[in-house]
Amino acid sequence: DAGVIQSPRHEVTEMGQEVTLRCKPISGHDYLFWYRQTMMRGLELLIYFNNNVPIDDSGMPEDRFSAKMPNASFSTLKIQPSEPRDSAVYFCASSPSQPGLPNTGELFFGEGSRLTVL
Amino acid sequence: AQKITQTQPGMFVQEKEAVTLDCTYDTSDQSYGLFWYKQPSSGEMIFLIYQGSYDEQNATEGRYSLNFQKARKSANLVISASQLGDSAMYFCAMRLYTGANSKLTFGKGITLSVRP
């Protein structure tokens, strides 16, 4: 089975440009999470979805960030306009529904998208 | 609210020895799961082990075991017989399973270096 697929793996852009990060979760997983990782702040949860519906977006830093999940197999995280402080690794992760054997509720992570804003 | 605390500075261990990585958590919920992830220098997040709040026995997965002390709200990871490939960042995380809240929160992480 394919894991969580993120694209692009690396993105270098200039301040002010729009950035779109993409994620394909594991088929059958009901939850999708977006995290941001920086040295200073560690792994921060930005937003998560359940059955394509955003449940908690309290971690989205500001209005420049938006996330959508139009269907069960695709999600985007958009930054517009981008700023140098947005430089980070952005992880997408998915998980199945509420835990029960053999599911533990663990999150399956993509390889991350490394964003550099100049 | 949920909070994960990992306060150890970088940890060092001699190859083939055991090491304990500390994690404490805070929640008022009764139903939750505790996780440990490994992040090597290549950057991927690797799931290691899981402990449910209602599990009475400590979880084990190969060389990894989780020392779960519910009353103290601690979930320490024990790695036995350390290998050079264990050098990485280790994250403790907690996921609530209460109503609509199902987010997974990470601690700040601990860097482990295994010496030959």
In percent, how much strand structure appears in the residues of chain A?
over 45%
Question: What is the terminal-to-terminal distance of chain A?
Answer: 37 Å
The portion of residues assigned to helices of chain B is under 10%
Q: What helical percentage do the residues of chain A reach?
A: under 10%
Largest sheet of chain A: 7 strands, mixed
Structural class assignment of chain B: mainly beta
- Assembly form of the protein: heterodimer
Query: Which stretches of chain A are poorly predicted, pLDDT < 50 over at least 5 residues?
Result: none
Give the low-confidence spans of chain B. none
Mean pLDDT of chain A: 92
Order of helices and strands of chain A: EEEEEEEEEEE
Radius of gyration of chain A: 14 Å
Let me know the largest β-sheet of chain B: 6 strands, mixed
The helix tally of chain A amounts to 0
The helix tally of chain B amounts to 0
Structure description:
The complex is a heterodimer of chains A (118) and B (116). Chain A is 0% helix and 53% strand. Chain A is mainly beta and 118 residues long. In chain A, strands 2, 4, 5, 6, 9, 10 and 11 form a 7-stranded mixed sheet that branches. In chain A, strands 1-3-8-7 form a 4-stranded antiparallel sheet, with no helix packed on it. In chain B, the strands form 3 sheets. In chain B, strands 2, 5, 6, 10, 11 and 12 form a 6-stranded mixed sheet that branches. A 4-stranded antiparallel sheet of chain B has the order 3-9-8-7, with no helix packed on it. In chain B, strand 7 and strand 8 form a beta hairpin. Chains A and B meet through strand 4, strand 5, strand 9 and strand 10 of A and strand 6 and strand 11 of B.
